[in-house]
Specification:
0% strand; 204 residues; single chain; mainly alpha
Length: 204
């Protein structure tokens, strides 16, 4: 359900583009993103920073596409968003001295700081790479090719990369849990094998 909610504007953009044109699809994508944020606010009660950024960027670049009737703005919009996300991840670590991924996911997953740091760098580099890739496709191919890439290429790469990161995270979480259990067992065994202290000698 969350996957569909996150990618709802992208899927809708693709369907409307195939039925009409890029400008109609852009207008629908703006409306869909506004509706998406409103639904998250109503259902969850809190909208994450990345989601606000996505809304602002689609409104600005989508609005520019409609006002100037130039599809270039909407085509480079994903590159701006991906670059922003990469910068936000690095800023959280090097400027604010916090791990944004850990902050977002620590309530569901417990992992060592080194693992969170590795994930942050991996995702930041992935977003920068995806930003460059989208710009290359947008400026070297026709709009229909770019729309197909936006749904199947970019989204497909993101899903595959997320699965790889989930496997990596799962392995380390299991390793940490096993180590914690082993430490607990050793402590219990040590407590059981420790001889009881002799009773104190009564005062004469």
């Amino acid at each position: 359900m969350k996957f569909f909610t996150d990618f709802f504007p992208v899927i809708l953009f693709f369907l409307v583009f195939k039925a009409f044109d890029v400008f109609t699809a852009t207008a629908v994508a703006i409306a869909a993103t506004v509706a998406q944020i409103a639904w998250i606010k109503w259902r969850v009660g809190k909208v994450e920073m990345m989601q606000w950024a996505s809304l602002i960027i689609i409104v600005v670049f989508g609005g520019a596409t409609l006002i100037f009737h130039d599809e270039t703005f909407i085509k480079i919009k994903p590159s701006i968003l991906y670059a922003f996300m990469g910068c936000a991840l690095y800023a959280s670590e090097f400027v604010f001295k916090k791990n944004l991924l850990e902050k977002l996911m620590s309530e569901q997953i417990s992992a060592p700081p080194k693992v969170w740091r590795t994930l942050l760098h991996a995702w930041a580099c992935f977003f920068f790479g995806l930003s460059v890739l989208n710009y290359w496709v947008a400026t070297n191919f026709d709009t229909e090719t770019w729309v197909n890439f936006k749904l199947f290429g970019a989204m497909g790469l993101m899903v595959v990369f997320a699965i790889i990161q989930a496997v990596y995270l799962s392995a380390h979480v299991k390793g940490e849990e096993a180590q914690t259990e082993e430490t607990g067992v050793e402590a219990s065994q040590a407590a059981c094998t420790t001889p009881n202290a002799p009773p104190s000698k009564p005062a004469e």
